[in-house]
Amino acid sequence: MKTLKKADIINRNQIEQALTEKKILQLSDHPFVVKLKFAFQNTYNIYFIMEYMPGGELFHHIKTRKRFSEKTVQYYSSQVILALEYLHETLNIVYRDLKPENILMDSQGNIKLSDFGLAKSCAQSTYSFCGTPEYISPEIIKQQGHGKPVDFWTLGCFIYEMIDGRPPFQNTSRQGLYQDILENNIIYPKHFTETAKDLLTNLLVTDPNQRLTIKEIKKHQFYSLINWDYMMQKRYDAPIKPVLKDFGDTGYFEEASNKIQETPQNVKITQNDAFDGFTYRGVEITQVIKEEEEEDGKK
Q1: What is this structure's pTM?
Q2: Which terminus of the chain is more solvent-facing, meaning fewer CB atoms within 10 Å of its CB: N or C?
Q3: Comparing C-alpha atoms, which of 16, 212, 2 is closest to residue 120?
């Protein structure tokens, strides 16, 4: 469950973002995008009830293993690529916040994109300064306007972090970090293969128009062993499978994230009107229980 305080949303002028996130989640129907089950509100908060992903964040699995094998990187990045392809070509959405913390793992070891708080329609270029600092693209820093290619930059950062255990750009100074990104100061340690380096150098390109497209990425030598239809159908065995006591096991989540912390803040009645129609019921609660029991039974 994701909880957002209405007062914070209003104070940060993020009402449109919250409603857009709900709309995207409501519309999404893809194997590698998290599903919205319910959305509701009370006087103080809005709530998103998503399908439960007991494997937790992919970030946890990267840190536990220090770094992934190239085969594991190919597997998980290919699922992300298929999700981005769906967002770009079917929903015409730019994701803008790809990072290991926003990728969740299911009980079978497959992953799904979550957290669409920064996602936006691709109808026209957008100029918002947003994203995770280490993953932020040159065009966002320059505030020149950005579109779908921003997701290919963050894809490159994501692939690099899986291979190395750290993002490609690191600096204790925010200004220094942005300068490194603008100057494309990337170091590839010895364990990066030539094929991986070729893919990354064609994703982490300063000029967004020169980055690989989805079609070009899927045809790259790095993914030569991936059958994209098989991957879409989840016909491969996942390289990582969470060890779970039961489907409700929360062992892969930080303790703090298991607690609902609600500090009521007053919201004016007129401001509450902005959230009219937020409630959404995707499925009956009995169906949710049935799906969870089926997942539990697969173990």
Answers
A1: 0.85
A2: N
A3: 16
